[in-house]
Amino acid sequence: MRSVLVAFLILCCGLALTWAGTLRLSEDYSTEDRRPSWTHRHSSLWPCDVADYPEAYVLMHKVEKRLERIDNDQLKNRIVQYVTQQLRQCKSGQQMDEHCVKRSIGYAMSFINHHKENSLTE
After folding, report:
1. 0.90 exceeded by the pTM?
2. In the chain, how many domains are there?
3. What does UniProt give as the signal peptide span (predicted)?
């Protein structure tokens, strides 16, 4: 009787571990579905070498919102190039440093404000 109970407990533990592993895998796939609408996997505005990193999405989204209020295409291109350069500096190997990206938000907004003001005075 005792050996049947031990075998039953081992079986239950094995099933629980299998179920937990399956649950974890399904959660990983569902995070792809819950990605924000402003993800940039195949954006024409941002190069793939920076757009494929989810850590960069926040900065790219903020910049895109600011670009919507700018009419000068040359200025827009200059801003995108600057931000792309900032994001490339945040890469190390095949990873993007999230803290570096967050620091770059301030630099990017300052760059945009400075160049936007200069374009108004010209």
Report:
1. no
2. 2
3. 1-20
Same domain for 30 and 48, yes or no, is: no
Residues 51 and 23 in one domain: no
CA distance 119 to 106: 20
Identity of the amino acid at 25: L
Residue written as token pair 């895109």 = 64
How does pLDDT run across 14-44, given as a tens digit for each residue? 666 676 666 555 444 444 444 444 554 556 8
Helix (H, G, I), strand (E, B) or coil at 108: helix
Residues whose CB falls within 8 Å of the CB of residue 89, separated by 6 or more in sequence, listed in order? 100, 104
49 with 19, same domain?
no
Amino acid, res. 37: S
